[in-house]
């Protein structure tokens, strides 16, 4: 996995906001090697502003790739899996095996997140078809990784859609998460892999919730 050593906790945070992270990531990718056939796919919501800057740096087409985390019923911020466009699903079976979840709990969360995925996809696309991935490089971009659950599902989904190569590019992730994705991706690029990682937002000076309106604004400037 491509990475640079992160600053320690006493230094300035590496990213001002998601747009700054996307510009830094795009510059790094452009220097890394050419991306002549890449389609940049932003994971909503926070990954789309980052992906927009990456697509601009690479002069590549931009699209949104729909994926939703499946959070634990009693601790929604902890991922037990994810679902993505095309019905692709990934479950953290090691985690689920250790938890005494009641019958039907996973299915209840799955149904809720599939409804939200469909709602967002309809709004974000506004009738536009998804970009064709067959034979191309799918460059999956998010604002950072924690457990990597949503990226696991996204990787499987873009493979199923016929992408010739699949790469992951993020500003920040813990070392073990990036390493766990390597068997699924042709390339994993991360600017910062801090050993003391706790949360994606701790590496941004401004990390507000991304709104649907911000996602739509980013996608309106996409290149097809």
Automatic annotation (TrEMBL):
Keywords assigned by UniProt, alphabetized: Plasmid, Transferase
Source domain of life: Bacteria
MF annotations from Gene Ontology: transferase activity
Domain named Phosphoribosyltransferase: residues: 37-189
Name of the molecule in the record: Phosphoribosyl transferase
Source organism of the structure: Deinococcus ficus
């Amino acid at each position: 996995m491509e990475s640079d050593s992160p600053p320690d906790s006493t230094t300035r945070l590496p990213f001002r906001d998601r747009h700054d992270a996307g510009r830094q990531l795009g510059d790094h990718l452009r220097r890394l090697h050419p991306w002549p056939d890449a389609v940049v796919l932003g994971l909503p919501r926070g990954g789309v502003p980052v992906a927009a800057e990456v697509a601009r740096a690479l002069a590549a087409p931009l699209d949104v790739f729909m994926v939703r985390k499946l959070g634990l019923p009693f601790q929604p911020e902890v991922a037990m899996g994810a679902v993505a466009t095309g019905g692709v699903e990934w479950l953290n079976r090691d985690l689920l095996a250790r938890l005494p979840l009641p019958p039907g709990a996973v299915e209840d969360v799955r149904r809720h997140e599939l409804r939200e995925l469909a709602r967002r996809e309809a709004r974000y696309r506004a009738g536009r078809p998804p970009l064709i991935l067959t034979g191309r490089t799918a460059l999956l971009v998010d604002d950072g990784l924690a457990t990597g659950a949503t990226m696991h599902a996204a990787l499987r989904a873009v493979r199923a859609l016929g992408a010739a190569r699949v790469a992951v590019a993020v500003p920040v992730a813990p070392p073990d998460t990036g390493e766990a994705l390597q068997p699924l991706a042709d390339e994993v690029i991360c600017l910062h892999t801090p050993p003391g990682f706790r949360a994606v937002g701790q590496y941004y000076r401004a990390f507000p919730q991304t709104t649907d309106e911000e996602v739509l604004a980013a996608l309106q400037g996409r290149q097809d």
